Amino acid sequence: MANVFEAYRAYPEVEWRYLIQPSAWVPNGPRLLIFNNETTWFMQEMGREDGKNALTQPSGAAYIKLAEWFETEEPKTTYQRFTDYMWSFL
After folding, report:
1. Domain count of the chain?
2. pLDDT tens by residue, 40-63
3. Burial status of residue 29 (CB atoms within 10 A of its CB: 0-12, 13-18, 19 or more)
């Protein structure tokens, strides 16, 4: 997320609207290279739901939370990862 935050700060003229992350575990490594319904369908469904959930938030809200995460210590006292923090307000 640090690279996303750096881009967010580097390009303030961009309208940063939505930040979407998987709400659950997704496989990594070689398994990602197997493209069939058995291995990708659950990720497709999760992505659609995660996208719908993101759209319930005001445009740019996730980036405000991203800035809070990197610029203050308070969220880190409760959440170990930004993803957990982000999902706490969705």
Report:
1. 1
2. 899 999 999 999 999 999 999 999
3. exposed
